[in-house]
TrEMBL record:
It comes from the Eukaryota. Residues 29-42, 114-123 have a biased composition (Polar residues). Keywords: Nucleus. The keyword Methyltransferase does not apply. Residues 29-123, 846-940, 1255-1275 are annotated as: Disordered. It holds the Pfam family DNA_pol_phi. GO terms for molecular function: DNA binding. The keyword Nucleus applies. GO terms for biological process: regulation of DNA-templated transcription. This is DNA polymerase V. Residues 857-891, 930-940 have a biased composition (Acidic residues). PANTHER family: MYB-BINDING PROTEIN 1A, MYB-BINDING PROTEIN 1A FAMILY MEMBER. Residues 1264-1275 have a biased composition (Basic residues).
Length: 1275
């Protein structure tokens, strides 16, 4: 009994051991039973005439014995039934049975101890008599009879792993006893596991599963295959399995699978003669498609080679062909699609039909299998290519119809099925057929699921994508194919949309030159109009709806033809291909490989951006290769993108290479320049343009005029001379040459790509003047001879640079900035005024320009207030109560002015932030003469006219682009133009802050700052000007010195700045004016002593500002400004000491008294010069009176009391150190001295005396050192 319980163990090895033990035991008992039967027959023959009395007694004993045995058997049956009903485990996942051969009973196991008991013999007598004769089991021992019935009952148990264990034991038992009749076993199964209508749902389910496992055990035992002569049993087995398949859906697939296994083990002649003629089987195969299912299709596919042709014709699931591959024809696939979709009922497991179809997909057809290829290599290769082409076509049709158009648009279960099919087919897939599997619909399905981790099929999609990547990484050709497929489906944004790094990982796996160029060539083929699918697919193979399998699909799966009807879709397709090519070249880490890809990409972009080619391939003689132009031709937007990427490639990936002369010396020693041939993509580009110009059938998109050709020739000549020459020993000259080469190259590229350039001749003239006679251009020399007067080249160069800064090309603007940085040391006053005029140009001509003290007009106080913002509020409201706002003022004074954040103004996009609402375009059409700046008098008429011409050209260009809907707002573009000019000024102030031109630019920039900060101005422009002044000019270490500095003009500018700062209501303007005032004081203070001294005027201006701070409510300056002035300039602090003491003695408020006291402390603690002693003696009486006043009337605040103590200590120390001739008591008076002692204690006076003694010792030591130094110098 223990062996039966072990058959239900979850451990498979334990179940196998129990099966072996049980079968071995039964074999031994059957052998013993046969031996005992033989002995009984022998003893019966010896007793011919037994006595009647002995017979009657023996018969009576046997009857009693049989009665007792039958009674015990019924009791045991009842107990077994109760045990089986008590089991409640419903685990039915594993439906297969395990084959256990009798050979598994080894010799060592045969000699093991017997584990049977006498009870098994006695309990097996229940089948003796009628039951044993009915099932044909009377020849077997009672143990075998009991085991057989017990195992049949056990396969219907719902206990965990009971069905698997009992079915395996049943198969082993049937195989171990060859005399068991199959019909008897089937009859026992049918009677024992009969399912009636009175049973409940769980009982019916257990009974049906028991029948399935029992029939499976019979098939696995091989009994029906051995006894093939009895065909009735085989037919009965077939009918039983087919009936089970019809009973329940969950029994359909395992029943059909068992039936297929049974058929495959039978001999073909027996199968065709007897089994396939079964009416029930033929009825199942010939049912309508509407009633058919995937299991029926699986059975039909497996039996196709044995079925009669009449059955094949009547079976709608099979094609009317001897070749089973005809099932993949589009018409037949469309008829069985519904049957295949039904296979998702076994979700999440993959139905067996898909494995069968996958194996059939990649199997050669019967015609190809019969063909024996020749031994010749070419014929074998031709045969292999034909096989691969046929398989690819077959897979493409199957995947398009079944997966793309049936499974993917359906439910989640069928989408999951599609992703499982990908993993099933990938290992068998050829590289040429990858595009068919990785279709747009599959990629879009993966993108939709991977967009969020919370999606239902996220893990399945992630696993599917990982499988695709692992498969692709095994071969570079596969990698390229998968990359193209994924990027094509997402328009080059697969990683961004799926939130993965799939494309990045695949790109990093391409390390060889062959792989990278394979990807590049595939992308070029896509761009040129070649279809993304392989040429192996049949282009004439059409679906029923008339769509071409090889067509190009859009993101929605709609097929687009190649005739250019849908231009927008074709543009989108070519856009992402261009971006992918550009990113491939840009992100390449290998330098040599990147250079090769750059040259190929340069040829590709040049041809598509500038030239129009023939429909057929053109031949390039210089390169000895053919070049293909796109079909259909490119649209205007696509050519613009090609041109933009061409310019970016030439600008960012290939800096101009200029090689320096060896050892910094020329060969002739006369300061000439050495020749060096540079290796640059831009020179490659010029050669490519010449090559395409000389190719027959290729023409330029925009042909050049005669003037354009001459200008391009002059530019090339000048550039070739400059790029091959390097100054001998001048680093500054080298920088100029490199910058000019870069600008000439950009202008040359612009001329080649867009036509002639207006500044070519003037720029070459500038080069001739800047670099002497090193440049000789015949055309320019003729023009120069005609001109009688030559202007200074910097005037022309700045004029050209301003016009270039107004262009839309970022590369040209960058090159112009580099030229300015190289030539900024040669700027003149007129050049600086030209730049400043652009900055001062109004964004809104209709707005009234505020008048400032920096204008050329009067600078009265009324004019100072005219620029103030109307939103500032009234003065009465601001200064209603100074006493109530003391704490606020204290907090304001402690705050440091914040540096405004200014974006990088080299790009147009970052300059958009913070812009004011622009004024309409109709206001820009007003006459500009009505809104000219008053500062224009600093420039002559010719210079002003040039600037107006540049601004007019800029506005005209932007207005034309706006009319086309391609440009931005005119005022916004003008603002960007101002930002670019300010970037030039910022660099000039950073490198040339000591130039007198800085003083020339300062008032103009202040005027522009005030105008942009007023009502209707632009806050972003004001912030940028503020950053240029405070961040570069005022913080630079250098400043103007010498004869070029007019101290009178600086003093007047300082006066204007201080006056404007006193009343400025705009915080930003006030901060800039305060910084400007400090910088001007530094410039005035740092001038040589022989220059005209303006310190008195400077002290007077600061003194007036201090008076205004303490006695005027409208003053906007704060005490931190005066602290900074007094700390930097002690002379100004001493001049203002009397005003500070008076303001502290007679304040308007307690807060101002505290401010004045702190400023006095700054003066006392500051640097002391020769004037300190004189100023101290002059102001000492007033300071002593202030000390008495502060001690007698102390403030209530503890912090303010501490300031009084510090003032007292500082004053006493200053008197003791500067006036040591008399005691401190005599200098400050008895009253003040006694008040200090009584209020602060004697510790103050002790510290003062000690500091005085130390000061005397230090003075004596300094005097002795001075005398010794003078004596040594005299000696």
């Amino acid at each position: 009994m223990e062996a039966y319980w072990r058959l239900a163990s979850p451990d498979a090895s334990e179940r196998e051991a129990a099966t072996v033990e049980l079968v071995r035991s039964l074999l031994q008992q059957q052998q013993a039973h046969e031996i005992s039967g033989t002995k009984q027959q022998a003893s019966k023959g010896e007793k011919e005439k037994p006595e009647k009395k002995a017979k009657s007694e023996s018969s009576e004993k046997q009857e009693n014995k049989a009665y007792r045995k039958r009674k015990g058997v019924h009791r045991e049956q009842a107990e077994e039934k109760e045990e089986e009903e008590a089991t409640t485990n419903n685990v039915t996942e594993e439906k297969g049975t395990h084959d256990t051969n009798s050979e598994g009973i080894t010799r060592k196991e045969k000699h093991s101890h017997l584990s049977t008991s006498n009870a098994s013999h006695s309990n097996g007598n229940m089948l003796y008599g009628k039951l044993a004769e009915e099932y044909g089991l009377h020849d077997f021992s009672p143990s075998v009879q009991y085991a057989l019935r017990r195992l049949v009952h056990g396969v219907a148990s719902s206990r965990e792993c009971a069905r698997q264990g009992f079915a395996m034991a049943l198969a082993s038992l049937i195989e171990a006893f060859p005399r068991l009749k199959t019909g008897s076993i089937l009859k026992l199964i049918r009677k024992t596991l009969e399912v009636t209508s009175s049973m409940k749902g769980q009982e019916k389910r257990d009974g049906l599963l028991g029948q399935l496992f029992a029939l499976g055990a019979v098939i696995r035992s091989g009994r029906l295959i051995v006894n093939v002569t009895d065909m009735e049993d085989a037919k009965e087995m077939t009918e039983l399995l087919l009936c089970l398949a019809k009973r329940k859906a969950f029994l359909r697939e395992p029943a059909i699978t068992l039936l297929i296994q049974f058929f495959e083990k039978l001999p073909p002649d027996v199968l065709q003669d007897s089994i396939l003629n079964s009416p029930l089987l033929q009825e199942t195969l010939c049912m309508d498609i509407d009633n058919a299912n995937a299991d029926t299709l699986l059975l039909a596919l497996r039996l196709h080679k044995w079925l009669p042709y009449s059955v094949v014709e009547s079976c709608p699931l099979l094609p009317n062909s001897k070749d089973l591959h005809a099932i993949f024809e589009p018409s037949h696939l469309l008829s069985i699609v519904s049957v295949l979709k039904d296979s998702s009922s076994c979700h999440p497991r993959l139905h067996s039909i898909w494995s069968e179809l996958a194996e059939l997909l990649f199997k050669e057809s019967s015609d190809q299998e019969q063909f024996t290829p020749s031994k010749k290599k070419k014929k074998r290769q031709k045969h292999n290519d034909a096989v691969i082409k046929t398989i690819d076509e077959r897979v493409a049709i199957f995947w398009n119809l079944v997966v793309d158009n049936s499974l993917l648009p359906s439910s989640h279960e069928r989408k999951f099925l599609a992703m499982e099919l990908v993993q099933l087919i990938l290992p068998k897939l050829s590289t040429s057929c990858t595009h068919s599997i990785l279709s747009k619909k599959l990629a879009r399905c993966l993108l939709d699921i991977l967009a969020a981790k919370g999606n239902l099929l996220y893990k399945s999609a992630h696993t599917c994508l990982a499988s695709i990547c692992e498969w692709a990484k095994t071969d570079e050709e596969r990698t390229v194919t998968v990359l193209i497929a994924l990027q094509h489906a997402s328009h080059g944004k697969f990683d961004a949309l799926s939130r993965t790094r799939t494309v990045q990982e695949l790109m990093s796996s391409l390390k060889s030159k062959e792989g990278c160029f394979l990807l590049y060539n595939k992308l070029v083929e896509l761009f040129n109009g070649e279809k993304c699918v392989s040429s192996a697919a049949d282009p004439q193979l059409l679906l029923e709806d008339g769509r071409d399998h090889n067509g190009v699909e859009d993101m929605d799966g709609r097929v687009k033809d190649d005739t250019g009807s849908n231009v927008k879709s074709l543009e989108t397709h070519r856009f992402w291909v261009l971006e992918q090519i550009f990113s491939l070249v840009r992100d390449m880490s290998d330098t040599d490989l990147q250079w090769s890809l750059q040259k190929e990409t340069l040829k590709f972009l040049s041809a598509n951006a500038l030239f129009v080619g023939p429909e057929m391939n053109c031949y390039l003689k210089e390169l000895q290769e053919e070049f293909q132009f796109p079909k259909p031709p490119l649209s205007e937007n696509t050519r613009k993108l090609c041109l933009a990427r061409l310019q970016s490639l030439l600008l960012n990936m290939s800096p101009v290479v200029v090689s320096a002369a060896q050892d910094g010396k020329s060969s002739n020693g006369k300061g000439s320049l050495e020749v060096s041939v540079p290796s640059d993509l831009r020179f490659q580009f010029l050669e490519l343009c010449d090559m395409f110009d000389n190719t027959s059938g290729v023409s330029r998109l925009q042909p050049f005029s005669e003037d354009g050709k001459d200008a391009i020739g002059a530019l090339r000549s000048c550039l070739s001379q400059l790029s091959s020459l390097v100054p001998e020993a001048s680093n500054e000259q080298t920088q100029k040459v490199r910058a000019m080469c870069s600008l000439l190259m950009q202008l040359l590229l612009q001329s080649v790509t867009t036509g002639s350039n207006d500044v070519t001749s003037e720029l070459i003239l500038c080069c001739k003047q800047a670099f002497g006679k090193l440049i000789t251009v015949d055309e320019i020399d003729d023009i120069q001879e005609e001109k009688t007067e030559e202007p200074f080249y910097m005037d022309v160069l700045v004029d050209i640079l301003l016009s270039l800064l107004a262009q839309a090309s970022a590369s040209i603007r960058s090159a112009a900035e580099q030229v300015f940085k190289a030539f900024c040391g040669d700027l003149t006053e007129s050049n600086m005024l030209s730049l400043l005029r652009v900055v001062k140009k109004q964004l809104n001509p209709g707005r009234r320009v505020p008048t400032t003290p920096f204008d050329m007009g009067d600078s009265d106080d009324d004019q100072v207030l005219d620029f103030e913002d109307s939103d500032g509020g009234s003065d009465d409201k601001d200064d209603s109560d100074d006493n109530n706002n003391e704490e606020d003022d204290e907090s304001l004074e402690k705050r440091e002015p914040k540096q405004p954040h200014t974006p990088d103004l080299n790009t147009e996009e970052e300059g958009k932030k913070g812009l004011e609402t622009p004024v309409g375009d109709h206001e820009m059409s007003k006459d500009n003469s009505d809104s000219e700046d008053n500062s224009g008098s600093d420039m002559d008429d010719e210079a002003m006219f040039k600037i107006d011409v540049h601004l007019a050209s800029l506005l005209k260009q932007r207005r034309a682009s706006n009319d086309k809907g391609e440009g931005k707002d005119t005022q916004t573009q003008l603002l960007y133009f101002k930002f670019r000019v300010l970037s030039l000024l910022e660099y000039f102030f950073q490198k040339k802050a000591s130039s007198p031109l800085s003083l020339l630019a300062l008032p103009h920039l202040l005027q522009a700052l005030v105008a942009s900060s007023s009502a209707g101005g632009n806050a972003e422009l004001a912030e940028r000007i503020s950053l240029v002044l405070r961040g570069k000019l005022f913080k630079s270490k250098g400043y103007p010195k010498g004869q070029g500095v007019d101290k009178a003009a600086l003093t007047g500018l300082l006066q204007k700045c201080i006056k404007l700062a006193l009343r400025s209501k705009v915080k930003k303007v006030g901060q800039v004016l305060q910084s400007c005032s400090l910088w001007l004081m530094k410039v005035l203070h740092g001038q040589p002593s022989n220059a005209k001294d303006g310190s008195e005027d400077m002290e007077k201006e600061v003194k007036d500002a201090v008076n205004d701070f303490f006695y005027q409510k409208k003053c906007r300056l704060k005490s931190p400004f005066f602290r900074e002035v007094f700390t930097r300039f002690p002379g100004i602090a001493l001049a203002c000491l009397s005003v500070l003491v008076e303001s502290c003695r007679k304040p308007r408020s307690e807060f101002l008294q505290q401010e004045a006291l702190q400023l006095v402390l700054v003066v006392l603690h500051g640097k002391r010069n020769g004037q300190f002693k004189e100023s101290l003696l002059q102001n000492l009486p007033a300071m002593c009176e202030l000390l008495v006043h502060l001690i007698e009337k102390p403030p209530s605040n503890k912090v303010k009391k501490a300031d009084i103590r510090r003032y007292c200590v500082s004053l006493l120390k200053a008197v003791a150190q500067e006036l040591p001739e008399k005691p401190v008591k005599k200098h400050i008076g008895k009253t003040a001295y006694n008040l200090c002692l009584s209020h602060f204690g004697a510790s103050i006076t002790d510290g003062i005396e000690k500091s005085k003694e130390a000061n005397l010792v230090q003075d004596s030591g300094n005097a002795s050192k001075k005398r010794s130094k003078q004596k040594s110098s005299h000696d």
